[in-house]
Design a protein that fits this description.
By secondary structure, the chain is mainly β. It contains three helices and 26 strands.
């Protein structure tokens, strides 16, 4: 959550160097280690620490050390043939601001008859007392807000990035992809991102045929933020292309509390949170690269990073799983909840 001008300026200050591309579109100077599933012994929570869980929902806790780093992390899996996936969000369909109040995850829990799971969603900001969404939110086919569609460092050079989204379509299929909203009838989904780089000239403004053949936007339920972490079972972490900061604010390169959403090849919805900023001594959190590797090893074939830091929160039957780094739940612009 941040002031409007500060948000867009800081959003745009990603690392500035141009990058040599691999054939798969991932910059070659973004190395990562192949995750080892044996290093990810998440243990199912089977006691009543968070109350009883219904059939179709499971909760897992990380070991104290995960991928060589101290950790407090949880993963919830949801069988969507038995449970409903919903998004609450402020209504800001034209990115012009909303009179709707921000809500904490507990307020969402209370407002929607005690969902089994509630997790924070995408980015948002506040300017002069008005609440703005910066991320996609769709509930039951209604567009509550699109992904923000511009970024700039100096308000002279403007970038029009494709932004990450996690989408459940009307047919029940799920994907992590990139989107661009240019108006009521100009909203597309892409299988690759526009390759913007804040250290280079902006690429073309996305449209129905750039950065690839765009599909008309359609979703039953969706949430946006970024970066996309996993697409078609492959590591992505496209923070630079999405004009997200590498070293401050969203801090994709740094270690922080994180929230992410994804799905497995067999159709389970996956919700991830990790603690950070030393709320538990010795636990600074993870980078977006780390989260991508954790979720790949867990079995995700699609995944998206959501708002982290002080926004990170996962409630299970109303109980907090991780300690909020604001020392209290933050009021946010949208939340995911599972009934």
């Amino acid at each position: 959550m941040m002031k409007k001008t500060f948000y867009i300026i800081t959003l745009a200050l990603a690392a500035a160097c141009a990058c040599q591309q691999k054939s798969d579109g991932i910059p070659s100077e973004w190395p990562w280690n192949d995750p080892d599933a044996d290093d990810l012994p998440f243990v199912e929570v089977t006691d009543d620490s968070f109350g009883s869980l219904p059939d179709g929902i499971k909760l897992y806790k990380s070991p104290e050390v995960l991928q060589g780093k101290n950790a407090v992390a949880y993963i919830a899996t949801v069988n969507l043939s038995k449970h409903d996936f919903h998004v609450w969000g402020i209504k800001d369909p034209f990115l012009t601001g909303s009179t709707d109040a921000l809500r904490t995850p507990t307020e969402v829990y209370n407002a929607f008859d005690s969902p089994v799971l509630v997790m924070n969603g995408g980015y948002f900001y506040v300017d002069s007392g008005t609440n703005y969404s910066a991320s996609l939110a769709v509930e039951n086919g209604e567009l509550l807000s699109p992904n923000i569609n511009y970024a700039s460092e100096d308000w002279v050079t403007m970038y029009y990035p494709t932004k990450g989204a996690f989408i459940r379509h009307a047919d029940g299929t799920m994907e992590a992809s990139w989107t661009y909203w240019a108006g009521v009838d100009e909203h597309w989904i892409y299988d690759i991102p526009a390759q913007n780089d804040m250290g280079s000239s902006p690429v073309a403004t996305p449209d129905e045929s750039f950065p690839c053949e765009g599909r008309p936007f359609e979703a039953k339920t969706a949430v946006g933020a970024g970066p996309v972490l996993i697409k078609d079972g492959k590591f992505q972490n496209t923070w630079r292309y999405e004009c997200l900061p590498g070293d401050h604010d969203v801090n994709c390169l740094g270690r922080a509390p994180r929230t992410a959403i994804g799905c497995t090849a067999d159709g389970l919805l996956v919700l991830f949170v990790c603690e950070g900023r030393e709320m538990t001594e010795g636990v600074p959190g993870y980078s977006t690269e780390d989260v991508a590797n954790i979720l790949l090893a867990f079995g995700c074939k699609e995944a998206l990073n959501l708002d982290g830091g002080g926004s990170t929160c996962l409630l299970v039957n109303g109980f907090e799983t991780v300690k909020p780094s604001d020392r209290a739940q933050r009021s946010v612009g949208n939340c995911i909840y599972i009934k």
